[in-house]
Structure formats: C-alpha cells, structure tokens
Amino acid sequence: MSTVHKAFLEPTVNYIKRVLNSKSKSFCGAKWYNATIWLGQGVNSSCHHPPPHPIDQNEIKTNYKAIHNTKYKKLVRKQMLEGIRPSECEYCWKIEDNNINNISDRFHKSVVYTEKELRDITKFKWNEDVDLLTLEIAFDNNCNFACSYCNPTCSATWSKDIRTHGAYNSLQGADDVGLTFAQTGEWALPYGSKNENNPYVEAFWKWWGADLCITLKELRVTGGEPTVSNNFWKLLDWWKEHKECQVILAINSNLGFKFEICDKLVKASHYINTCHIYTSNESYGKHAEYIRDGLVWDQWTDNLNIIAKHSRIKLIHIMFTVNALCLASITKLIEYIFTFQETYKDIKIDMSFNILRWPSFQSITTLPKYLVEQKIKELEEFIEHNSQPPYFKEGLKSHQVDRLITLINYLKNEVEGFDGATDLTKRQQNFKAFYTQYDQRRNKSFIDTFADWPELVEWYNSLDYKFVPQERTSGVQPKNDHYKRVLDDKI
C-alpha cells in the first residue's frame, strides 16, 4: 500500500479502535439507531447488508416501535455487546478479515452518529426499545426497473418477467439462485400493490405522527422505486403541511422517470428543509443500460441535471453496486461524476462503493484471475491519479479512497464470494446461463454491449453450461437461517 493510501486510512483506523472496538470488536451503531424496513412485506433489518427478518404483527398492535425493536434484533444487539460477531453481519466480517487495512461498513454505518450517541448505547439494556435516529423504509416493491442483480421480491417489473417468460433455467448453487429466479415474488406484496390495510404501514404512520417526525434525524425512502408508490407522495403531501419538520428526507430513486415526475419532485423539494437524493449506478452509458434494465442513460443524466439545477436538494449521492460487469466502465462513471461536481459546485456530490455479494454469480469474484488483475491495475492507477494534488480537490475524497482501497484488497485476496457460494465453476456456469437468458428476455446483447472489453467477451464465449429446467413458482418467503438460529438459541 502506498504512503498516500496509508495516510488516508490512518484516521479511520484510529476511530475504529477508539470508538467502536473499545465497546466491543463486533460493535456497530446501526443495530440500535438505524433500520431498513420493507413495510410492504413486514420485514426488518438493521441495515441493507443482513438478511431481513419478519416483524411480529402481534407486537406492533400494542407497540408500534416494534417495527424497529424486534425480539430478534435485540438478541443480536446482545451478541454485539458481548463481542460476538452476529452471523447476519457476514458482509462486514468478510471485508475486515480479507485485509487488515480494509474498512467495512461497520465504520461507515456508525460514524454518522456522534460519539456521545454511540457511548449512550452502552447505557441501554440489551432488551430495551431504542428510538431510531436514521430510518430507511420501502412502502412496497413497485418498480419500473428490473436490474440484472435484483429479483422478483424487490421489483414488480422483475416479477412480471417471471410471470411472462417463466423461470430462469440452469441456475444452481448454495445460495438458492435457482429458486430466486424461478419465483414471482408474490409473497412480497401480501397486501397488494396499493398496500391496503397493511399493519406495518399503519404502524409507521402511527410512530411518525406520534414523535418520529421530531426525534428522527433522517428518513430515507427506498423501494422498488419510491416515485411509483402512493405512500411516497402521501409523505410529500404531509411535508407540505409541516414545513417546519427538521428531519432530513432522503430519496432513493433510480431517476428513470419522465419530466413530469422529475418536475413534481423538484417542486416538492422547495418545501422540505433538507432533502437529499440517492441514486444507484455503477457504470457508464450502454453498460449501465445493460446492467440496470430500464435505465436510459440520457434520461438518467438529464434528470440528474434538472434536479441539480432547479431543486433545493442539498446532496446527490451516487451508490455503486460493484459487480463483475460494472468494472468495464466504473472509472468512466466516476470521471463523469467529477465533471458533474465541477458544474454544480453549490451542491454536495458524493459516491459510495458497495461490493455486490448476491447473486454470487454476478460477483467480481466470479471473473477469472487475469481479468481481475487487469482491473486492479486500472483502479490502482486511477486512485493514484485522482487522490493527490493537484487532482484531489476535484477528485476522490478520503472516504471514497477508503472504499476503493477496500475494493482493491477484496479483488486481490477474495476468491470465494459470500453466502457459501464457493464453487467457482458453478458460479461461472450460472453467469453464462443467466446472461444468455437475460439477453433473450430483455432484447439485449452481452457480446455487443461489452465489445469494448474484448477479454471479457472472449472469456464469456468460452463458458458453457448444462441446461437444467426449472419450474416457475409463485414463491415462498426464503428461509433466514441467521434469524431462526438466534431465536432458537435465545442467546
């Protein structure tokens, strides 16, 4: 590691030792102060990494705060306070164990809180209810995109793909990819697309009206795609009547909407005290359109510019889901964002880099070693060029360098991937099987799209897979072994 990179990492490493590890080496503030809640299906997680677990309907009838403070989550908090690594937090342990210099999201998810707030956690009993400080909610899974790394549970458009074309065939492995891409995900909307009489949505509105709209620091609305959810616009209508609300409203949007919706969102931003936009993308141009099916590059960039120029939004954050295919143009997208920063200097522009772990066959660990080494070299040169004077002012920020270094270390050292998907041959067969069918269903061409990365295309053409038919199913909610194990053990 270069001296420059070590200098970037040192303050972060010191913070982890002083603030987090002094409480326990498995401590993370997100377990107490943050929640990601999928209200449409009634499941909860402490952030977007652990598998979601169900919220007890009986609990929320008498205690609406139980949509966050579930019995299961309290048991996992107990693990952290005792220095036990919760198995559901595998993403962070995998990153930390991969390289001593890696900074996992345990840091990024905790540093958003003050040191006093983190100290206060140790004063709570492990089974106490704790008020949220940051909350991410999805009212439903209605979405106009069907991204390659998504699935029918999270996107109604993906569900339509399975209903129309049937199951994806020949997908096999330890992480249930075959089952996932064979089911329509109907269980994910038990109350229908309009969420009528949904007790979890009702619990949110009760808590929001009681005091959450005062005590919360940030509310982030995700999906699906929020702008196609009736409850999202209901929330903006509430804000219009309560302009004094100091809660930060963050909106996770794919920005794949027509001008009329963009204009509506821009106008709404003018009566919200602090409004942020988070949007997902990890590659440039035709690569982005391929990976994130539904995205039109020019529409995405037009909406970015309209929001930056005409709204009162104070932060635009681009979230990278780093997968095998995005390595084709990940640095080109970052360069585009640098230019965007130069154009709109009055708005904070940020980026984050999250390593895709599921579906495992789309992971960067599925690529052959020589392709990985090619991209490691490109990324290292890119970081060196864009994290030193005179480039640093308009280039990468220190926390972005942290994450890119973590990505490079992961590329260098990791070969297995996540979720027990250790069979490289099987993952590569799944890669070919999936994208062959993806092209047929979505009227795309892997070979044409990635012709500018000829080594990737050559490798892709060399892959073969055995056809294994798979029956379509309406689907059942996937098992969460972490959830069941913790509750059974009653730690």
Q: What are the defining features of this structure?
A:
single chain; 491 residues; alpha/beta; nine-stranded mixed β-sheet; 21 helices; 45% helix
How do the helices and strands line up, and which of them pair or pack?
Blueprint: H1 3-20, H2 30-33, E1 34-38, E2 43-45, E3 53-54, H3 57-62, H4 71-81, H5 90-98, H6 105-108, H7 115-121, E4 134-138, H8 156-165, H9 177-180, H10 199-215, E5 218-222, H11 230-241, E6 248-252, H12 259-269, E7 275-280, H13 286-291, H14 297-310, E8 315-322, H15 330-343, E9 348-355, H16 369-386, H17 398-413, H18 424-442, H19 446-449, H20 454-462, H21 481-489
Parallel strand pairs: 1-4, 4-5, 5-6, 6-7, 7-8, 8-9
Antiparallel strand pairs: 1-2, 2-3
Helix pairs in contact: 12-14, 16-17
Q: What this model shows, in words?
A:
There is one protein chain. The protein has 491 residues and is of the alpha/beta class. The protein has a domain at 3-118. Helix content is 45%, strand content 10%. It is built from 21 helices and 9 strands. A 9-stranded mixed beta sheet has the order 3-2-1-4-5-6-7-8-9. Helix 12 (259-269) runs parallel beside helix 14 (297-310) and helix 16 (369-386) runs antiparallel to helix 17. The longest helix has 19 residues, at 424-442. The chain is globular and about 60 Å long. The model has no long low-confidence stretch (mean pLDDT 90).
